[in-house]
């Protein structure tokens, strides 16, 4: 619809995926010019719509910002895929699509005869991306679950928390954050290959396997020497002081990391304890690591009297890594996020305005254009059927009457 | 061979960006890793093997060829510029302004090679008020958002114990560079791709960073209107993103199991109590609760919070007598929302990953490494994960000869 050059101008994507790990891929394609048609059930709310934060702070089917973020820029239609007539609509969409993305439990698409072997008969050059928790093959392929299970099955749930407490795990469904990055790169490489050769393909992404890529050094370590990585709280193996310290005021924290002797000497002066710089108990990083708890107490006693943002400015002014912990409230006030244009406002039919994350890459010549808010349930069903598929009134009435578009 | 085997990449990154080139190398691209004469700082990032060699380097520089080059001297810069003149993609992760100061910034390279896609990975972005901030993993996790709300009771916000922030940025750099490549396919021209790690990292909050912007400063995870009054926040998503206990001790470690309520995932909880009932571990009353409608039952007073608490304590007692593997098997056969909390050892020994031939061996007799394999599976010749990470300057002669048409 925009005349200027967009990276994915003309690319047609059928997005049958749901929750986060699948839809996040289509969001990128839409940001850079693809037409992405997101299909969902109108009768059983997709999980992302149940996940907050919510506009105004309370749940409503159209209030989820989690859903809104990963589906911005897409067209949205509802189909009841349990019905054959609805699946025929999918087949018509597949015939005109370059890419299909889906994230149903392995076996579901096959049962619906919408798996790659069936769809390639309709469209031999199709690229189909399936993203599932454990992949399409192997003894645990039918394992169900969300990204927290993905976090468990990829090793991350064991690697967050305090050594003297049970593991806490990462913040939220970790594989939902990591896996879409790998899905996207695999998909774009496949698309490039198709442009060179005309050949489509099927891509099976296991979200757990993609997430394990972020633990590759720790796995290599285990295979090399049997070492098993453990949770360490906020300790680092090469830096001390290193931690998150409470500051004056409610729920206000600053992260501080000291990388070198020189930084330690500067910090000692800045916290009003210049004598510590010459204290042999803290001379080397090994000394400081051995007394990390003592150091945490010293630094924490100072930060407790300080405003977190002042600590950040003071320490950064002296080249020492420090930053307040960003809540959603101070993210909005953060000058760097503002400078990046991170919070993208979009008109919304119910809320007036909604907000999504900006694209994670700034392209100098063909920047992202997030054209519209995520679709409300079924917002473009009629548009897709009538304008894109060219169905007539009668076909629309039949589909609607049978509940296929619900 | 691979999807991207017709492309050449010059990779100047260190530990802040190493993964980007590795991802594209796995897809067949010819990636030339450029290091200073003293070796990449990534070679000093742990963990280390018994010989003191960095496994971070071994993992994320794998599949690349390596050249050493002093970018602070004219001859080194000249060689680097000649490499870039022939490159399809360039990646760098220096602090803002450093590459331009060497005559190797985007504008310098574009003048030599207008097709180049030049991707910069920086902690806070290439410009802006915090662009020159000092950074570490912990600082970026704080600045990007996932740290603040991540608490275990009274303890301070806690990070992931292995470095992650730069990996998020680097994986986005690979994606952003390929997006730019599709623009180049049409225009014939390259561009600059600017990745700020803080923006990559904020993705790891499940959109929580957006909460205040939409009038939900508490960032409610899941509030069902009908249950709100009775129980406050009840997570109905099933993703375990917002509720209390999800880690339960077993005989040999922990399992992740979420007693989900509501229409999205309550059925998993019903299945779980059916298992307990079959094993004689819970009474008829608990087995009869329909967790799909639990929020409404709670609101109506037909289910009490005491009963929910009893369900949790019965769960704890039952799981304490099971192994992770038993819970895994039951999750598969009975469709539970539960999983073993895998350690690195569990992962390495997972029969599922073995069946999928996930692990790959790279290298030669001298340095054999086992690494995670391709990040997607496909029947066509898409991936190639073969080469171990280069020794310092290992391919100097080869690359200078081949790429620059010079004799070493």
Describe the structure.
The complex is a heterodimer of chains A (406) and B (408). By secondary structure, chain A is an alpha/beta fold. Chain A folds into two domains: 12-214 and 341-401, Crotonobetainyl-coa:carnitine coa-transferase, domain 1 (Rossmann fold, 3-Layer(aba) Sandwich), CATH 3.40.50; 242-333, formyl-coa transferase, domain 3 (2-Layer Sandwich), CATH 3.30.1540. Helices cover 38% and strands 14% of the residues of chain A. Chain A is built from 17 helices and twelve strands. Chain A has helices at residues 23-31, 65-71, 84-95, 108-111, 116-122, 147-153, 174-197, 207-212, 216-225, 261-270, 285-290, 292-303, 308-317, 328-333, 335-340, 381-388, 393-401, and strands at 12-15, 35-40, 75-78, 99-102, 127-132, 201-206, 242-246, 253-257, 322-324, 343-348, 352-357, 362-363. In chain A, the strands form three sheets. A six-stranded parallel β-sheet of chain A has the order 3-2-1-4-5-6, sandwiched between helices. A three-stranded antiparallel β-sheet of chain A has the order 7-8-9. In chain A, strands 10-11 form a two-stranded antiparallel ribbon. In chain A, helix 1 packs across helix 7 (174-197) and helix 6 packs across helix 7. The radius of gyration of chain A is 25 Å and the shape is elongated. Chain A starts with 11 loop residues before the first strand and ends in a 5-residue tail after the last helix. Chain B is α/β, with parallel strands linked by helices. Chain B has two domains: 8-204 and 352-404, Crotonobetainyl-coa:carnitine coa-transferase, domain 1 (Rossmann fold), CATH 3.40.50.10540; 225-341, no CATH class. In chain B, 37% of the residues lie in helices and 13% in strands. Chain B has 17 helices and eleven strands. Chain B has helices spanning 18-26, 55-60, 74-85, 98-101, 106-112, 137-144, 165-187, 197-201, 225-231, 266-278, 284-288, 294-300, 305-319, 324-334, 344-349, 351-355, 396-404, and strands spanning 8-11, 30-35, 65-68, 89-92, 117-122, 191-196, 247-250, 253-257, 338-340, 359-363, 368-372. In chain B, strand 1, helix 1 (18-26) and strand 2 form a beta-alpha-beta unit. In chain B, helix 1 (18-26) packs across helix 7 and helix 9 (225-231) crosses helix 12. Chain B is elongated. Residues 222-243 of chain B have low confidence and may be disordered. The interface between A and B is large, with 163 and 163 residues. Strand 12 of chain A pairs antiparallel with strand 6 of chain B.
